[in-house]
Amino acid sequence: MKIKSLIVVGSGPGGSVAALEGAARGLSVTLIERDEVGGTCLNRGCIPSKFLLSKSRQLVEALALSDAGIVVRLETIDPRQMINRKNELLGTLRQRIDQSLKAAGVRRMKGHARFVTDHRMEVIASGGTTETIEGDAIILATGSSPNTPTLFPKHPAIVNSSTIFELEYIPKHLVVVGGGYIGCELACAFQGLGSKVTIIEKEPRLLPTQPEFEMAGMLLGRSFEKRGMSIWTGTTVESVKSVDDKRIELSFSNRERLEANAVLIAVGRSPNLQDLQVSRAGIDLENGRLRINEYLQTSVPHIYAIGDLVSPVPLAHTASWEADAALSTLLGKPTPINYSLIPRCVYTWPQAAAVGLTETEAKNAGYHPRLDRYHFAGNSKALIENESEGVWISISDAQSHKLLGGQIVGPQATELIHLVALAIKAGLSARDVSDTVFAHPTLSESFREVVNRSLITSKAIANS
Ligand code: FAD
Questions:
Q1: What is the mean pLDDT of the chain?
Q2: Going by CA atoms, what residue is nearest to atom 28 of ligand 1?
Q3: In sequence order, what are the residues at sequence separation of 6 or more whose Cβ sits closer than 8 angstroms to the Cβ of residue 96?
Q4: Exposed, middle or buried: residue 384 (CB in 10 Å: 0-12, 13-18, 19+)?
Q5: Is 112 marked active-site?
Q6: 244 CA to centre of ligand 1 in angstroms
Q7: Helix axes 445-455, 413-425, angle to 10 degrees
């Protein structure tokens, strides 16, 4: 059947790109959203967190100027003003998406969408009115929501990654439960703004669920501790009790009690699948989740699922990329997804980023991986910027020198990682990078330094 009309549910980086691209490729598109346009990424995720990190970082840098004899005095921080500025920024970005959708001719419907049949959905508006709509194909991009273990009572100072951006005070002591990337980034942001921060993580290291961040998890932990943060790994929260509106007492499996002025729960997210009524469309579930194939098709081939709802790498750019791939497939050009090429970034300081294969994945893929390291302490630009903490690990094949992966902890890691991504995508070898001229002094020249190490013999490395 030739697909002419498309329904997209959810307007985050997955759904909005699916709608825009679908319209650009000639489909009649309806986009259904129950909340504000932009999804988690724009309203409660990437953008507000990076805004907070940026302000916090600017403050830390300004205060550090005293090292060079420039003294900046911090009179006060006005969180309400910061929230207003953040909201202004989000408003501008929402407007841009709105305009693009309008210009592309995407039909918008506001309300909660759920299936009636495999081609028909009903949209329930907040007032309760219901409209139905039919489509030849459907892309589900409903995202995910933060988990809240029942251990945590309702309390104005107990927040999650959606509500922390509305906190109208800088907590004296912030306890972050969960040392994944969201917990680490927000811990870093609030410490920079003046909070004492304790991170509680039940696993032995930070960023525990991501094998590509094994080194980063350890280095970030050390770096945070050096800056005065408390990192309690191997610890679980056992009880949480309200003392008053701004004080919470927590007890732990293996540590003394703590009193916090705010608690951030950052213990993972669950797909927004409930209330979609997928069974009415005949879609199969596996362990309570949507089952999809490598083309992002559910068990009903004209219904696709993308983004945080299904993705093993739940990030904004994954969702947008999957939107593109799903559209190509539904328009007759089957496009499978290769998740190893998705850059994964942590915007703390130092930053962390990874792309490509880990050593284990490279071995499993039949390569003979070798790891080479270059410390930013040897890079002039990093030293000038006073940011020489961190290391660049390059993973290449020992026989062909083909570049397979990169893991970076250090200054601008979230930008530098794209050099590696591009090199891997283009199938470059260490020799190709070594034959490229990099300007001096730059952080980018560390890429050439690290891959050069893979071109000298192991004996030479041992002697270096
Ligand atoms: P979402 O962005 O969650 O959008 C889903 C939309 O669907 C929502 O607007 C929702 O209202 C709507 N919806 C749900 N159900 C229905 C329904 N039944 N009917 C109608 N509408 C519905 N990723 C990065 O790449 N970089 C970052 O720096 C980054 N930082 C983050 C920081 C934080 C604090 C958090 C929480 C996340 C961060 N992420 C980051 C992750 C990123 O936000 C998500 O991966 C991304 O938003 C997923 O996009 P999506 O389109 O799948 O879903």
A1: 95
A2: 46
A3: none
A4: exposed
A5: no
A6: 33
A7: 50
| Nearest residue to 260 (alpha-carbon basis) of 199, 171, 150 | 171
Could you read off the pLDDT of 325-380 as tens digits, one per residue? Answer: 999 999 999 999 889 999 999 999 999 999 999 999 999 999 999 999 999 999 99
Residues 395, 417: Cα–Cα separation, whole Å? 13
Say how far apart CA 452 and CA 5 lie, in whole Å: 52
Ligand 1 atom 46: residue of nearest CA: 316
Contact 329, 394 (CB under 8 A): no
Whole-model pTM: value is 0.95
Mean of the pLDDT values across residues 44-56? Answer: 97
Cα distance between residue 103 and residue 93, in whole Å: 15
Nearest-atom number in ligand 1 for the CA of 316 is 25
- Residues having CB closer than 6 A to ligand 1 are 9-15, 32-35, 39-41, 44-46, 49-50, 112-113, 141-144, 161, 182, 272, 276, 307-309, 314-317, 319, 347
